[in-house]
Amino acid sequence: MSLERLKAMRSLLKSEMEKSETFSLVLEKIGTKLEEINTNLLSLEADVKVERWRSSPFSDHIRHTIAPISAVLRVFVTVQELERSLLSCKDVLGYVSDVKRLEEALKLLSSSCVLALDWLKDTIQFLSEHGMPEDHPCGLRFKTSIKLLEELQMTEARAYLRGGSLYIALENLETEFERILEDEEVLSESNMRKLKTIIKRLDAHCVPSYIKIRTRVIQKRFENGYLHKTITEDDNVQDTEGDIDQWRLDMEKALKEIYEFESKLCYEVFEDVGEEHDVPLRCFGAIASNSGLLQLLRFGSRISKCKKSPPKLLKLLDCFSTMDNIRTEFNRLFKGELCSDIRRETRELISNLVNGVCEIFWELPCQVELQRPNNPPLDGGVPKLVSVVTEYCNKLLGDKNKPVLSKILEIDLGWKKEKYQEEILIGHIYNILREIALNLDAWSSSNKETALSYIFMMNNHSHFSLYVKESWGKLLSLLTIKSQPARRKRARESIKRTLQDFANGFNEIYTKQSDWVVEDERLRWKICQAMVRTVVPRYKSYLQSYIMLLVEEDPMRPGNDLSYTPKGLEMKLKTMFQSKEETEKTYKCSHFVNKVMDLEVTQNSHLTFEAI
Question: Where is the Exocyst complex subunit Exo70 C-terminal domain (predicted)?
């Protein structure tokens, strides 16, 4: 092939290649154009389809379905906002308000989901029945929306489950509820307002929690080891004396402070919940029955089981006194069915205390008599028994124990359908003294040396003062010599009034004890001598201090209004504890002496009572 021909072929090939490149560019432009046309056609097709559905008779039905779905979304947004608000809320009252709004919003969300689901399902069924294909985008979107709505419908239920927003919110309220109930200032105005607000939200759920929390608070105040101690008949009361004293303090504190406060708190907290259902009373009853009071009452009953002894009687009197001091609070606080166990244990405790006291008290004379075979002190001194029994009887007749002992004896006799009189108590104390006197007589007779026997009786004479102190002590306190008013008339009236009160008191005691008889003449003589030596000098001294005032009023008959002269008083005292025949005989002599003394006073206006 010639060179020229090769050049020509190369030029032709180059020319064809250039044409090919130009044609390729043209084709590329056409392809892009076709793609644009295809996209436009697809969009136009979609627009045509939408327009066709929009202009179809079903478009209104579709739009009505969209409205409930939009409402669900708006409510859901509100729920989310309230949940975020709870996370940042620090105020209890505001927190409770937000919880309430959240609950309402969740309920609205659930009901809105039900409405939207009903619309969607009805719409899909309607469109399917009127020609909408199953794979149509609108139908597919509706089916997806159903799944989402069903998921949202479960929001309320999930909120109450562990970890849910309402579960956490209510748990926080219960925590705050517990914190307030454990606060020492629980009854403050601020705390009460918070409690009542929380209770309105928690409603019935708060009652068990309230009982549990307040019961725990009280139990912490009763964490005393002695309440679980066992007491048997072999235990001496002295071994548990400290525990008994602590028990008495705890009982008074329990009634006058703890349960008094607890009752007030129950009625304050639940006053708006429903008193017609006895909610405060039931709450208080449940708390009282489970917080330690029953253990206190049972320990008190166990005290009565320890070994019988005179010291035990005194301790039982203390225990009864404590229970009597809180009796009013008991009757007022512990009402209702839930307090029935408390009332039963209280009745059992009182019964044990009364029986324990009476059992020991009635046996005291026998216990003294059992000591008679013992030998007296060799030096003629006072036997320990005499001192102990005398001191013991003084305690029983003291202002602290006598009223309590009288009440216990009255209860005991009342249970037996018998009537109590104070003479029963005094008479039994006298029986104890009589046994002491008989012991002394026996011990005195056992002394071979007469002089030592007399020394022995003189040393032991002081125990007769016990009866005198009990019977005449308060009456003699009237005869206290004190300064009189400056005006002599008023002074005389005061003295005469005192003497009249003394005479009335003397007559009352004498009348009350006139039926008492001491058959042993030696013992009666000793008692009467003790009374005379105690009463008459005091009476005589009082008259001597004010005789001049009485003389000024009536110089001819000073002391004309006196019911008794000192001598007449002495004679009457000597008739105590005699038989009726002896009393009448002595009374005639006493009456004669009084007449003689009145005559002497009349004849000599300057007579003083020194001569009587």
Answer: 246-464
